[in-house]
């Protein structure tokens, strides 16, 4: 019988760490109260990428909270006896923005295109009038600009940093920033594009059927190369000793 997990418990899927818990928002807020850290949203693609990329694997291993974002990871955990719900990172990040707006938390945004960042700032100002946006920078910066941007970001002392630079860059970039640093730091992939209205998220019924990956593939056909990781992941999990 599958176990119902109440407190976060760290286990592994294909030797990549993941935390299973009943409520990822509460786990993230508890981490924030302890001083913060990095949050990683793990899916099958990222799991296979981490096995091939030591830098990404090291970033995930060092993260303070790794949540089961993808249906494949949830399925793999079920084979280990853990009953967890899929926790989309885009939903956790939005909930953290809500919490920050309500509590006066300092927020920083990094990534996406200049146009998406401008639209996102406008949208967040409308939805969360009290949000303290203390730093923002789009992701299309010249290489020589990044050291100064990173310095400004750390000086701003944000309580929540959402980074949309894509996998693996967002995870390794967060991991490599100087320490100590406060707050929650989370890679959010294409969430800025969805929130800004330039892309649409899969319909709820596709999410319920756990085929959001198909909707993303239809929107971005070039993703098919990355999608090859899904059957590879499934086969690796099936071969792994239970």
**Count of separate DSSP helical elements:** 13
- Please indicate the percent range of residues in DSSP E strands (runs of 2 or more): 15-25%
SS elements, strand count: 10
Main beta-sheet strand count, sense and barrel state:
6 strands, parallel
The dominant shape is globular
Briefly note the structural class of the backbone.
Answer: alpha/beta
* N-to-C CA distance: 14 Å
Uncertain parts:
1-5
Helix content: 40-55%
Radius of gyration, CA atoms, in whole angstroms? 17 Å
How many domain regions? Answer: 2
Let me know the average pLDDT. Answer: 89
Assembly state of the chains shown: single chain
Strand order of the largest sheet: 5-4-10-9-7-8
Summarize the helix and strand pattern as letters: EEEHEHHEHEHEHEHEHEHHHHH
Structure summary:
This protein has 242 residues and is an alpha/beta fold. The protein has helices at 24-33, 44-52, 54-62, 71-79, 89-103, 114-127, 146-156, 169-176, 191-196, 204-208, 212-219, 224-227, 229-239, and strands spanning 3-4, 9-13, 16-20, 36-42, 65-68, 82-83, 106-111, 132-137, 160-164, 183-187.
């Amino acid at each position: 019988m599958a176990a119902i997990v109440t407190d976060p418990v760290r286990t592994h899927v294909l030797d990549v760490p993941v935390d299973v818990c009943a409520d990822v928002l509460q786990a993230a807020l508890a981490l924030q109260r302890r001083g913060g850290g990095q949050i990683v949203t793990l899916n099958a693609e990222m799991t296979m990428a981490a096995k091939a990329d030591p830098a990404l694997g090291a970033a995930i291993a060092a993260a303070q909270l790794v949540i089961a974002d993808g249906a494949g990871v949830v399925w793999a955990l079920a084979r280990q006896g853990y009953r967890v719900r899929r926790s989309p990172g885009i939903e956790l990040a939005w909930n953290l923005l809500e919490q920050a707006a309500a509590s006066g938390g300092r927020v920083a945004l990094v990534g996406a295109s200049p146009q998406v960042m401008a639209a996102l700032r406008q949208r967040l100002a409308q939805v969360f009038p009290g949000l303290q946006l203390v730093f923002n920078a789009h992701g299309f910066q010249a290489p020589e600009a990044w050291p100064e941007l990173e310095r400004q970001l750390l000086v701003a002392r944000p309580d929540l940093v959402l980074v949309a630079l894509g996998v693996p860059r967002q995870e390794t970039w967060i991991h490599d920033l100087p320490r100590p640093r406060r707050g929650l730091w989370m890679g959010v992939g294409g969430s800025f594009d969805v929130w800004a209205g330039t892309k649409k998220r899969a319909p709820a019924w596709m999410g319920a059927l756990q085929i959001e990956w198909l909707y993303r593939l239809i929107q971005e056909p070039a993703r098919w190369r990355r999608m090859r990781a899904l059957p590879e992941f499934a086969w690796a999990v099936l071969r792994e000793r239970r």
